[in-house]
Fold these 2 entries.
Entry 1:
Amino acid sequence: MSATLRPSGALRSYIGGKDEIAVEAGHTVRETLSALNIPPEVIALVVVNEQQQSKDYVIQEGDVVRVLAVIGGG
Amino acid sequence: MNGYGGQILRVNLTTGKITKEATPPDVVRDFIGGRGFGAYFLFKEIPRGADPLGAANKLIISSGPLSGLMIPGAGKCDFTTKSPLTGGYASASMGGHFTAEIKYAGLDSIILEGISPKPVYLFIDDDKVELRDAADLWGKGTIAVEKHFKEKLGEEFQVAVIGPGGENGVSYACINHDFGRQAGRGGVGTVMGVKKVKAIVIHGTKSISVADVAAYRKAGMALYKACKDAEGLKDWTRYGTTIVTSWCDEVGALPTRNFSAGSFEGGKGLYGQTMREKIVITDKGCFGCPSPCGKYSRSKKYNINVEGPEYETIGLMGSNLGIDDIEAVAQANLLCDDLGIDTISAGNAIGWAMECYEKGILTKKDTDGLELKFGNIEATFELIEKIARREGFGALLADGVKRASQKVGQGSEKFAIHVKGMEQSAYATHNATAMLLAYMTCDVGAHHNRSWAITYDLQVGRDKVVPEKVARVIWLQNFRPMFDVLGACRLQWVELGIDRDLYCPALEAITGVHRTWEDLEKVGARIWNLTRLYWARENEGFGRQWDMPSPRFYEEAPKTGATKGQITRFEDVNTLLDMYYEQRGWTTDGLPAPATLEQLGLAELIT
């Protein structure tokens, strides 16, 4: 049971500079981020399979989850 | 000189004399371009004590070495002057295509001096430079005037224009370009208006020499590829800066009802997603941009087309006024753009007036009959017009929220949200100590773009007051404004997260000068310290007190939203400043110490 998390930009530093990481299905995006030590508060946008979702979305098997942060700012 | 137009254009509006001089190599070496040129010429050329609205003040318009070249977003133009809003340093950055034409006309900076006896526009077509009569354009809106020039001269001419706000001396008048881009902050449009310059139109056909064409091509392509490959490109392009609206609401940073809270119950009506679905027609980019953040919108309700609104305008003209209708924000945006006033300062000033009204400090007798309750859309539109024309109650707000609150008194100074007289931009800072410090110490007043540290607050603990936060603020202040020095947009680094080291080979290939980011950050620190000295030179008694934020952020905790009950302690405000001054190498009253100036190569310049 796995899905793919793709953090954007500076967020990649939380996963060793990689473009993506396999994550377990069955958890919310918020829980998944916390488990990776990515503060959910810095995430501005969650997109799952090209559909915008909330951080409380429960990740399903095979999902591709993109998360955008606002690390650099406006 | 590789990467540069090579000349400074000087226009004396009093005498009509137009001259050119070679761009000084030592200024290129020490200040590079753009905002750096602006700071240098401001400090060296504008006499001590000059009236911002007098003939001695100058408007310095500068491109950078990357401007107009094949570099992502290389369309940034700097406007520097002595601010009529704050009495200190003003530097406003404008996107679009104007700065590229400066370079193509063989120029690096345009310096406007003196005051014209009558309305004029500055016409530049390569080496042909003329002051032309603008009597028939005076009084007109920015959109009509830009359209006029595009039709008269051709699409290839780029136009920077002021509106009635600049003509009428609104202290935060902006300069408009490309039907929706602005040099917005600090009253750069006010100074252009005082000088009776309605517009600058420019077109050039000259080449920009680069040191190593093959290396330039390679480095430029690497930058574009990094942008194209960025995971966030699609989403940042879809939403632009409005992507942060919902996030700010969630974390309590969305200015709400004159910054009394950081979350807005009507926020959803303003979110980027709502805006995209309801009013956005298409995307719009600046010169050479691979990730266009601009949005063209159409409001059926108001029967208008407008570029925007972007996040700052949504925050200040939306939630800060208790307005939850994105179409109303778009209309307010269009009014401000056409009238030529800064949406940030205007929204902040109107928010202050609405709070005064709701508290009974101001009544309908004071407001020309306007019922200035939060959420009153029609009153907002009317007040924008009044401000731009300095009519009745609008004249009070046209001088900015600091002066307005000093005139009205009755405790209203405490909820005038500004630093050094510049209205705070759209991040509520009740419990975000790094962002609060960034606003307190920003070189132009309470503006966000030098150091955007609020995410860092969330990462390390928002109420923590630790040296690491201060170091982060200083690093950002030295680093981020360098994009305005180089003449390129920072958003590819900010939003897409591309590797900043990709810029150094490009800069070297273009200019032939090897500079690392360490070198560039030292230039950033040099400029930061020079402009700090400028503030001190121009304002007797300048020091720590000038860096204090609005008491709202250390005296009144929000009653609602994500930051309900949260506040920064007053002693923490002072601790932040102590640490900041120490890390900057400044005195305890916030003035650069001699050793710091020596280290930055400024000791000789300032004597």
Entry 2:
Amino acid sequence: MSAQTSAPVEVAREAEPGPDQATEPERRRRSPLLVVGLGLLGLVLLVALIASLLTPHDPRAISGAALEEPSAGHPLGTDVPGRDIFAQLVFGARTSLTVATVSASLAMAGALLFGVLPALVGGAADSVSNRLMVFLLALPGLPLLVLVGSLAGESHLVVIVLIGFLGIAPNARILRSQTLALVQRGFISASQGFGGGPLYVLRRHLVPALGPLILVGFVNWAGLAVALEAGLAFLGLGDPSGISWGLMLNRALAQPSIYFSPMWTWWVLPAGLAVTFTVLAFTFVGVALEPSFNPRWLRSS
Amino acid sequence: MDHEPVLTGPQWVLDRRRFLLAALGGAGVLVLGACTSSGGGPRTAPATVRLPNAALGFPTPFAANGGPGYSQMILLYDTLLWKDGTGELLPWLAETVTSSDDHQTYTFELRDGVTWSDGEPLTVEDVVFTFEYYAAQEFLSPAVLVQPPRGIAGVRATGPKAVEVTLERPLVTFPEQVAGALPIIPRHVWSSIDDPGAALDMAVLVGTGPYRLESYGGDGGPLLYTARDDYFLGAPYVQRIEMNAIDDFFSALLSGATDAARGFGLRSDILAPFEGDDAYDTITEQGTWSQVLYWNLGKEGPLSDPRFRHACAMAIDQDDLVSRLAAGRGLPGNPGFLSPENEFFAPVPRYEFDVAGANALLNSAGYRHGNGGVRQDANGAPLSFELRFDNAQVELGEIVIAALRQIGVELRSTPVEVGPELFGNKLFGGYDMVVLPFPGPAPGGPNADPDVLRQIFSSRVPPSLTGATNYVNPAFDELAEEQRLTFDEGERQAIVAEMQTMVAEDIPVLPLYYPDATLIFRKQVLDEWYFTPGQYPTSEDHKHLFVTGDESGTDIRRR
């Protein structure tokens, strides 16, 4: 088996960036967007990891009077039942990152399954799966999300899975076209000629070759997932007992005339900024990576 | 048969004192108007009043939903009697009402010159038809506020203008809850309509009411009313009413997009901009509305065990609810159900907040702590229940859940949309515990006629959206019947007090708190707003004000 695989690996190496693109990693490292994006993501990740060290309060527990103003005990005050808003903010980072990573993983796994694999198998499988992806692309994403979100009620998992599901079709289309382009190259036919099955070729050659594209798709979908989850929670369609930035915004803005009071500055603003900066961080990383990995960009360069 | 006058007509006769007052008032309005207008002639009555209410259903008596829908509908229709701002029942379509000595027969003499909005005259046949049409309805949507009246033996025309209504038994609530609430509908429109809930055509909107509906933007959309100058009391004081879907009432009021806004348990920072401004005025009323916790007594086990319910009541700090959820503007719940502001309120012992006492009670009732701090009943089943609540009241739900957690009772939260999902489950008993706004889509609130107790707690009343599910107390049922046959107020008061004691002991439902209702209005547009005492059938009603511009009587204020 190892003898059979050595040749394609050699060919695969040929497909890697040529000498004129050798400076690409440095260019990427230098990209300020990437630095800022990764910096922000790192910060969110850190907050999510050490959330319980940042605040003594349980975000779900009533720990003060209603609508307290910011104080040493409650840096961002309390909400109506008297729960600490700062605790909700830092624990909300966990929810957002979980949604982002799980949804984006599901989306990319689905894209591999329904975009790359059928393209390798070819024939009816590719044709059926391609039609299916076209059909899924035609589905209006947001209304579907709102509909399913309202039917699913409390289940946070359903929302995560659905956001991931919605990411399958657009990513599958990109990965499929790249796979079709790769399949034309010699090393794939060679591997198949030596008896490599579709799964073997996918795992051994295509996933590494498609890796950067998968990474870009992952990052972009993760950013979108954060915004979608926050949007759904803001509309009151998420898990009502959960802790999330969207839910914080939902609760804050459900207060009648919240802008009459300064409390929007310590309730609406931090949650809004947290969503904004996290989505922005994913977007920066995605935008910074895209020129080096996306085949369309590469072709034009 | 001797008849005693219940209400006699000539409220509008102008005596010398009224004439002088009216003349003075009119002159005052003219002077004030001249001061405030910016260059035109003297200010007249408000051309337009804008309100922040979207359409709730379609404004016929059969398709308007809940209290807001009723108050939108009743601007197009009239009732035989109607209340003013003092709570007095006024002759409205009826010029006089008399009742027999045994209070079993009421005779309504209709006014002359009342016309439907399509020009046809109102006849006694229309009134008879209305009662018959309602009686023929087997099912109206439970969201329709005024349901077919029960206990009516017969309705017949006894003269060209006279209608006689005979009751099966004398009912003290008949004048207010039937004659004062049932919209009279035109026979020539509705006789051909079999399914009134499905009649959603503007062409069916024919009423004797003070306004015409100029436009209807669908359920949840805007409504535009214009006054009927040929209205039988005279051209209504407010000439045009615009209702628009507005999310943030008080910002809209400040920005000038609406002329009045109402809220419950308002925070100080919402009230502040209006309190310091002469352009606005504020009126407040206590006990008109509440949030009520229901246990499903139809379920075996703890839910139907009064000791369990007592413990739940003791674990919820109701004063704390007022301070957290109503910014301190409200009253804690009365286990006797009526609000402390109700004239029939009888003080009953409250379930004082006492977590240790509640735990001790559950211990003595045999509910022992099990795994994870959740208690178990004698069969080892955990005290774990689903709590449904309006998703606009998530905070209340969360506080109740946290409160009961302290006594080892686990509640799983299910916030749902107000509407079919919340009320449907309540109506059909598909719940463990639920928190509902009261009155919700039912007539009368905690300040209304005490017959509301019978309507909620009597097992002889069919299941309703706001009724106490499966509560059966034959002694209570007897008293509930007796009070509505009792015309002596002192006697009725004593019966109602006893009913409140029973309800407080059994607590099949528990009012959690009553947030104060506050109405803020722009004085320049309309300066005489008021809450109608008792607020039956709905607390949102301002029809009398819009028609007369005044607090009492049927005289229309001079412009």
